[in-house]
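Dear colleague,

Thank you for sharing your sequence with our group. We've completed the structure prediction you requested, and as agreed, I am returning the results in plain text so they can be pasted directly into your records. Please verify that the sequence below matches your submission; if there's any discrepancy, let me know and we will rerun it promptly.
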Amino acid sequence: MADFAYTTVPGKLSGLLEKIRQVGVPPKASTQWLKSLGFTSSNDASLLGVLKQIGLIDPSSVPTSSWQQYRGAHHKKTLGDAIRSGYADLFAVYPDAWQRTQTELEHVFSTSTTAGKQVVAKTVTTFKNLCASAEFSPVAEQTNLSVHTDPLHTAVTSKPGNVHSNGIHGIPAVHIDIQVHISADSSPEQIDQIFKSMGKHLYGVGSDA
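Please find the predicted structure tokens below.
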């Protein structure tokens, strides 16, 4: 599990995130840039490591596309997605990590570092402060859809005189239930593509044939 960034001034994260949405996009998010926004303490530089952790800036401190998206109307959702990505190892353990307790998070973070309890506690506090400014989609749940396909219910061919107990000549009627598991996080386009593919393979809809 990779090390997680933390800041010694987690209480300033919400203010910095708000500034990102208010001011212009800098060529680089540097300590000088932080000072121009009023983050003049030497400890404030640790905020930049957190921005790298969640992918708002790249390893060279250059703002990424996520930074641009965060300046939009859906900034909380964008931040939530960035946190999920930046803390992927944590979310692999707890898909609802933002709802977990201090103790549960400390246990996970402690496996990624040889540092002491203070660093682990600050790492958890950093994560919690980030989450306080974000919005997360519900944990993915599987949805079962029972699809009854009429063409598959009726025998394709029949042979005279060959009657089965179910009253259908030839091949017995076939009844097939298809269960489609769709993640709650799937986009409308992804769902449309799933049913388009089903139509193609079940009915020949959209096929070249």
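Summary note from our side: The longest strand covers residues 142-148.

Kind regards,
the structure core
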